[in-house]
């Protein structure tokens, strides 16, 4: 059972429903799956819409917009189901490849590739385009030397301090 408020009812009444009326609920109350859209009537229009959706899925996956890709994949699935299988063999193969790419988005290899892409973009942005080649090579040499020799860790000089060993439980105060 789900609580649902009746906004058109002037009395503050809450109705419990079993979820059968979810098709008529407000758009904010549940996520759109992509399958709810006005389906084109003619076969040619359906095929054209399917091809456009496949292009949109590809661009969304390439740009790593995963929510849009999920939405467009469900949209494409609804279109493919509305068309005869013999007419959409190429599109079904393309969709299968796109689904594999979409499913591989959370694999360790994909995450590592994304991480390396980010580090490449930040390092190229840091180097700057106005610097001369001589300056950048000199900078690379100095950083390479710094990487080879680690800096020594500074030794903390605590001075001559009296440690009360008796208070720590190591012996009597006279021993120290």
Explain what this protein looks like in three dimensions.
This is CHAD domain-containing protein. It comes from Streptomyces sodiiphilus. This protein is mainly alpha-helical. The protein has a domain of 74 residues. It is 52% helix and 5% strand. The protein is built from 6 helices and 2 strands, in the order ββαααααα. The chain has a two-stranded antiparallel sheet with strand order 1-2. Strand 1 and strand 2 form a beta hairpin. Helix 1 packs antiparallel against helix 2. It is elongated, with a radius of gyration of 33 Å. It starts with a strand and ends in an 8-residue tail after the last helix. The mean pLDDT is 75.
Mean pLDDT: 75
Number of helical segments with 4 or more residues: 6
Q: Which quaternary structure do these chains form?
A: single chain
As a whole number of angstroms, the C-alpha radius of gyration is 33 Å
Number of strands: 2
Shape: elongated
The SSE order reads: EEHHHHHH
Q: Tell me the helix content.
A: 40-55%
Low-pLDDT residue intervals, each spanning 5 or more residues: none
Spatial order of strands in the largest sheet: 1-2
Strand share of the residues?
Answer: under 5%
Q: Distance N terminus to C terminus?
A: 77 Å
How is the main sheet built? 2 strands, antiparallel
User: Which structural class best describes the helix and strand composition?
Assistant: mainly alpha
Protein name: CHAD domain-containing protein
Biased composition (Basic residues): 128-143
Region (Disordered): 86-161
């Amino acid at each position: 059972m789900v609580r649902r408020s009746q906004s058109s009812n002037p009395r503050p009444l809450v109705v419990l429903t079993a979820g059968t009326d979810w098709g008529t609920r407000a758009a904010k109350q549940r996520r759109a799956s992509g399958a709810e859209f006005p389906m084109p009537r003619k076969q040619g229009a359906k095929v054209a819409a399917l091809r456009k959706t496949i292009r949109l899925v590809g661009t969304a996956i390439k740009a790593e917009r995963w929510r849009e890709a999920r939405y467009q994949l469900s949209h494409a699935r609804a279109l493919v189901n509305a068309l005869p299988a013999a007419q959409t063999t190429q599109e079904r193969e393309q969709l299968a490849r796109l689904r594999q790419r979409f499913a591989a988005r959370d694999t360790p290899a994909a995450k590592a590739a994304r991480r390396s892409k980010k580090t490449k973009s930040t390092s190229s942005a840091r180097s700057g385009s106005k610097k001369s080649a001589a300056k950048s090579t000199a900078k690379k040499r100095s950083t390479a030397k710094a990487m080879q020799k680690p800096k020594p860790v500074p030794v903390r000089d605590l001075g001559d301090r009296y440690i009360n060993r008796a208070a720590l439980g190591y012996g009597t105060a006279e021993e120290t």
